[in-house]
Automatic annotation (TrEMBL):
Protein's UniProt name: Signal recognition particle protein
Keyword annotations of the record: Cytoplasm, GTP-binding, Hydrolase, Nucleotide-binding, Ribonucleoprotein, RNA-binding, Signal recognition particle
Binding site for GTP: 107-114, 198-202, 256-259
Residues of the full protein shown: 1 to 304 of 524
One annotated GO biological process: SRP-dependent cotranslational protein targeting to membrane
GO molecular function, one term: 7S RNA binding
Role of this protein: Involved in targeting and insertion of nascent membrane proteins into the cytoplasmic membrane. Binds to the hydrophobic signal sequence of the ribosome-nascent chain (RNC) as it emerges from the ribosomes. The SRP-RNC complex is then targeted to the cytoplasmic membrane where it interacts with the SRP receptor FtsY.
Organism domain of life: Bacteria
Species name: Arthrobacter psychrochitiniphilus
Lineage start: Bacteria, Bacillati, Actinomycetota, Actinomycetes, Micrococcales
Length: 304
């Protein structure tokens, strides 16, 4: 997805071969290529600026590693900085000391939240957990049904505010905060150790949506708030991520549609701008197209 970066660097590095130490001009030429490649990959401008400044500073700095040639040295620096931006180590779910662990999902409509809810629940079930899905997206008429379908596929029960669903909390119908709280109560009474709460998304960021998400967050006090974002949205990722970060103070990011022809800049932009780690990647429409996000692997993919 970042093919252009490695291709461009290869060309630049050819000129560096055989040099013992990088001159300022060599470093600047390389950094220029990195800057162009990142911009082409849709990484946000301020992120590109900060990233390249750091790489330049380190490349010119005193870190001379005798075992590496100059080109290798820059690749090493770029790799380390990419890993750092993407969150360093793979970040695991923060499990509650007193179950249930509560995970809330937030993001724009169409980002892939409902699909992710199914994927995450299936993955957790495979790890020996007993999850409950809670349908607190009452905005889109089909969202509850869609979560029920995903839950069925994952073999995970869904708490939904529908008449006819056997529950003592049917009075919660219509109010997403009440539904989320009722779902949590249901999880406790049925001894589920993880609760995944799907919330409403809109096509654009709007104040009402954000308030609703913030109200749900305040009511259920989640252990994780995962911001689900479509990797294809490019430069828009930054504004969206900032708005959700201010609105719900999310704890981690899930990138979806990484199977598409996304140029991947969203990953770097969101992680860098918000300082929150990318935790999972969604790579297709099937419930198994889901993986833990590994910053080091993503960095290698960018540089390969
Ligand atoms: P929500 O509005 O955020 O709940 O989004 P949905 O879960 O309904 O997903 C929107 C569309 O994107 C659906 O057609 C999904 O099948 C599709 N989708 C979700 N995740 C992925 C993914 O990782 N890759 C691809 N190719 N499609 C996805």
């Amino acid at each position: 997805m970042f093919n252009s970066l490695s291709d461009r660097l290869t060309a630049t590095f050819k000129n560096l071969r055989g040099k013992g130490r990088l001159s300022e001009a060599d470093v600047d030429a390389t950094v220029r290529e990195i800057r162009r490649a990142l911009l082409d990959a849709d990484v946000a401008v301020p992120v590109v600026r900060e990233f390249t400044a750091k790489v330049r500073e380190r490349a010119l700095g005193s870190e001379v590693n005798e075992a590496l040639n100059p080109a290798q040295q820059i690749v090493k620096i770029v790799n380390e900085e990419l890993v750092a931006i993407l969150g360093g180590e793979t970040r695991r779910i923060n499990l509650a000391k007193n179950p249930p662990t509560v995970i809330m999902l937030a993001g724009l409509q169409g980002a892939g939240k409902t699909t992710l809810a199914g994927k995450l629940s299936k993955w957790l079930k495979g790890q020996g957990h007993s999850p409950l899905l809670v349908a607190a997206d009452l905005q889109r008429p089909n969202a509850v049904k869609q979560l029920q379908v995903n839950g069925e596929r994952a073999g995970v029960p869904v708490f939904a505010p529908h008449p006819g669903v056997s529950s003592e909390f049917e009075s919660a119908t219509g109010d997403p905060v009440a539904v989320a709280l009722a779902g949590l109560a249901e999880a406790k009474s049925k001894l589920h150790d993880v609760v995944i709460v799907d919330t409403a998304g809109r096509l654009g960021i709007d104040a009402e949506l954000m308030k609703q998400a913030a109200d749900i967050r305040a009511a259920i006090n989640p252990d994780e708030v995962l911001f689900v974002i479509d990797a294809m949205i490019g430069q828009d990722a930054v504004n969206t991520a900032q708005a959700f970060n201010e609105g719900v103070n999310f704890t981690g990011v899930v990138l979806t549609k990484l199977d598409g022809d996304a140029r991947g800049g969203a990953a770097l932009s969101v992680a860098s701008i918000t300082g929150k780690p990318v935790m999972f990647a969604s790579t297709g429409e099937s419930l198994d197209d889901f993986e833990l996000f590994h910053p080091d692997r993503m960095a290698s993919r960018i540089l390969d």
